Amino acid sequence: MIQGLQQRKDSISMNEIITTYEPDNSLKKGYISVFRQIIFELKQNRWLTYQLFKRDFLSTYKQSFFGILWAIILPLFTIAIFIGLNRSGILNIGDIGAPYSIYALLGMAFWQFFSTGLVACSNSLVNAGPMILKINFSKKSLVIAAAGKAIVPFFIQIMMVGVLFVGYGRTPSILGLLALVFIIPLILFTIGLGFFTSLLNGVMRDIGNIISILLTFLMLFTPVLYAKPRIGMLATLTKYNPLYYLVSTPRDLVLKGLIPEWKGFLIVCFVSILLFIGCLFVFHLTETRVAERI
Amino acid sequence: MNKETVISVENVSKKYCKSLKKSMYYGAMDIGRNMLGMSSKSSRLRKDEFWALNDISFEVKRGETLGIIGPNGSGKTTLLKLFNGIFWPDKGKITIRGMVGALIEVGAGFHPLLTGKENVYINAAILGMGKKEVDEKFDEIIEFADIGGLIDTPVKFYSSGQFVRLGFAVAVHCVPAIMLIDEILSVGDIDFQRRCFNKLGELRKNGMTTVLVSHSIMHILGFCDRVLYIDKGKTMYYGATDKAIKTYQEDMASRTCMPSVNLEVNKMSSSRAVTIMKIEFLDNNEIPINRVNAGEALTLRVHYFAAHHIGAIELDVAIASYGGDIFFRASSKAYGNELFIHKGEGCIDVNFKSLRANNQTVLFYITLWKSDRSELFDWKRELPFYVVGDARSGGKVLLDIDWRNRQ
Asked: Does residue B288 share a domain with residue B244?
């Protein structure tokens, strides 16, 4: 017992970090110091992030009969609609050089990683509202953990793609394994944007709805379920659509084993990294301000 | 900052906004300015904003317990949230030495669908513990929470007591250098409360600094070295515990208690046979008072108006504590006193030879009946009156006691 008390005493005296709270706290410290602080905070809170992810994950699927299967049911419906549209000749999917269901499901897996992740991130602060007002913990962990919601459905969909490959008697390119590395820009893009939208949503609840609507449109304008159009306005749009590169590059790696538009992809990689760092910074500077408005 | 000073609060102010729409707009503005690296100029008030805390300063030394008291909405919880870094001050500066743990709400962050065990880990992580620390303390936490075999059951099936016990158990095992406690010591059953107090006592003995927000005078008296009394965001008193409580109680009393309660009824339009027009609190010399020292005499004068001759009546008087517990109730008839009401205005005196409530604002309930209780003429409820505490004793009642050695 005495030893126990002694230990506690030590742990109390060890925590001698001095914290100061002032208006515009972060601004006074300079950008380099803020950046170091962000890195330290992220590192320090890895376990917290995992626990928050676990909380999200377990609670989503616990009181549901189909559980994780929903991750596959919803995209299958969307794909079924596209197959229907294609068969009836309303929509021309274009030349994709692979069985359509593989092409579509693979595309959906990457796309849904983005859309599910972004929606979850955007709602993360608002959903945690009461918790944020009662305990001071890293809100960055909250956003990152929310993006984790997209990971499990993603892997299930990838597994489905594997099943389809076997079903069609095809083999994916061995370079397809690299796709796991090539989705890192997609992850950074999603979380980066998520940092920003979660802040906006914290202040104005409209943002959550706007994002849902935008994502539906964005999916139609991004060649996820059809091939890249060669002519017309959609072709021009696609050229400047970062999501096209983020989704199609890993898909091309799996299907064909090559990166047809590596230049565009490289630029988008760069953009994603900048977006991530920029939004993380903004988030860090303003997260406490947002907590007041939640 | 002195090495022994753990919390230092210098001229801190915090503003809130009354309007949601404005709050949205201001929030967007502030965030925009902060993003661009500009100051949010938080020291000015904009339209619909007000100071929830205004120019608060104090210091807490290592191992001390500071109590914060004040009426509802005075800014106590906001102050705790500033210590904890949930909000930033809009003016002034707060310096904290060491890790802060907060018990602003127990079980905040518990997810109803997850089991007790899952929630313990998640909650502990949110409160700042590491995996190793939770693994080590897990058994101790479960033992402290005393929830038996329910640890693998979703917490939505817990009773509210079990829920709170588990939340509290996690929080006290964080062992922060500074513990912020907001009005949560009154949770759980007696035995659990006792263990909470002992646990907090043990932590304090090891140098933990505590800030305790409570409406319970007992808790404040029992724990705090110093007390900050705030109202409407301003410091009303800061210093010794007993003085702070006395100031607080007297302020509360003078705010709610009136020497007479004019009921402003129009006697002509009243359809009642008898109407209570006014109630006065008087001392021995018939001078209106709004407070009395515990144990002294008090007269309650009930002014009435009767539309016609009534005859024998019965007057009921009940006294309740502010929480609503009735601790005294009697009627004139039971005391063997006969009362009559004639046509027109008149009054009835109820003379308490010695009011034996202690140290509290009491509420009077007065009911006027026909003597056979076949008709309730009029009643007045919850008339506040302050009984100044007897210096020698605490608690809610004052008893006459002789203390002596038995030879």
From this structure: no
Query: In Å, how far is A94's CA from the nearest CA of chain B?
Result: 44
Q: For A256-272, how does the pLDDT look when each residue is reduced to its tens digit (9 = 90+)?
A: 888 888 899 999 999 99
For residue B264, tell me if it sits in a domain: no
Residue A279, φ and ψ in degrees, nearest 5: -70, -35
The residue ranges of chain A whose pLDDT is under 50 are: 1-15
Q: Per the structure block, which two tokens stand in for B230?
A: 């705030």
Would residue B266 count as lying in a domain? Answer: no
What is the rounded distance in angstroms from the CA atom of residue B162 to the CA atom of residue B110?
12
Q: Which region, left, alpha or beta, applies to residue A71 given φ > 0 means left and ψ of -120 to 50 means alpha?
A: alpha
Over residues B207-259, the pLDDT tens digits come to: 889 999 987 777 787 788 999 999 999 999 999 988 888 888 778 777 767 77
Looking at this predicted complex, what is its ipTM?
0.82
Residues B362 and B322: beta-carbon distance below 8 Å: yes
As a whole number, mean pLDDT of residues B349-361 equals 90
- A12 contacts in chain B (CB < 8 Å): 98, 175, 177, 206-208
- Give tens-digit pLDDT for B101-160: 877 777 778 888 899 999 999 999 998 888 999 999 999 999 988 887 889 999 989 988
> What range does the domain containing B69 cover?
5-251
Is residue B233 located within the same domain as residue B282?
no
**For B48, phi and psi rounded to 5 degrees?**
70, 10
Kindly state the average pLDDT of the residues B40-67.
88
Take residue A279 and report the two structure tokens written for it. 């939004």
Structure tokens at A191: 């979380």
Name the domain count of chain B: 2
Rg (CA), chain B: 27
For A229, phi and psi rounded to 5 degrees?
Answer: -70, 145
Contact map slice: B 225-284 vs A, CB within 8 A: none
Q: How far apart are CA A219 and CA A244, in angstroms?
A: 10
Burial bucket for residue A180 (CB in 10 Å: 0-12, 13-18, 19+)? exposed
Average pLDDT over residues B16-23: 85
Helices (H), A135-183: 139-147, 151-168, 179-182
Residue given tokens 């950008």 in the structure block: A31
Q: B128 — contact with chain A (CB < 8 Å)?
A: yes
